[in-house]
Amino acid sequence: MPVRVLVAEDEYLVREEIKASLTELGHIVVGEASDGETALNLAKSVKPDAAVLDIKMPGKDGIEVARELVKEGICAAVLLTAYALPEFIQRAKEAGAFGFLTKPFDPKALDAALQIAVARFHEFRKLQEEISELEEELATRKLVERAKGLLMKHYNLSEDEAYRLLQRRSMETRKPMREVAEAVLMTLELLEEPKATKRKQ
Questions:
Q1: In what helix (H) or strand (E) does residue 99 lie, and over which residues does it extend?
Q2: What share of the chain is helix, strand, coil (3-state, %, to 5)?
Q3: Hey, which bits of 10-161 come out as E strands?
């Protein structure tokens, strides 16, 4: 499958070589930059599938750009450098880069790195979405439990009755359980505040 690629390289001739190789491989170059800041802003705009980033660039270096691209879930990042120093490799790993190539690069190796990087990035995004959904479910469950507790306390309801009341309210208002629970908590916790104030006095 063709990959939509952003190329960031401060050396013009090398950048042109990368672009030519990508085009020959059947990929689509959707943007190019000669410095890290421009690369990052362009990536946010064009939303590529992957970015090929030189490590040593003016301003933000390629590793810093890769970190932000991955953190914000924009695209996969493949780093390209003439210096495979242990420091660079360690920083690249910490930044979450999905590929690391040295210059002069082999077009076939670049193609493989891109395909693997995009696949892994999609897996990473899917995992992040699943984690977010689980966190949302857990937060909703906690709110519903608190709301049930207050309903049981204020209206002398059983746990099942309190839960069914929340469910019915959710269906009637066509609002998620989380919103209904938050509204119940806001209302009933306000009723409890005067009692707490009197106890302190």
A1: strand 99-102
A2: 65, 15, 20
A3: 28-33, 50-54, 76-81, 99-102
| Partner residues linked to 6 by β-bridges | 31, 51
* Three-state secondary structure call for residue 2: coil
Cα dihedral 99, 103, 104, 108, rounded to 10, equals 0
* 3-state secondary structure at position 189: helix
Residues 136, 128 contacting (CB under 8 angstroms): no
Entry field: residues in the chain: 201
How many Cα atoms occupy the beta-carbon half-sphere of 13 within 13 Å? 2
For the cut 60, the answer to whether the pLDDT of residue 110 exceeds it is yes
**Residue showing tokens 């970190």:** 67
pLDDT per position as a tens digit, 23-66 = 999 999 999 999 999 999 999 999 999 999 999 888 889 999 99
The token duo for 25 is 């491989």
Show contacts of 43-48: CB within 8 Å, 24+ apart.
Answer: 43/6, 43/69, 43/74, 43/75, 44/72, 44/74, 46/4, 46/6, 47/74, 47/75, 48/4, 48/5, 48/6, 48/74, 48/75
**Mean pLDDT (whole number) for 13-32:** 94
User: Which DSSP letter does residue 100 get?
Assistant: E
- Give yes or no for a contact between 66 and 95, defined as CB atoms under 8 angstroms apart: yes
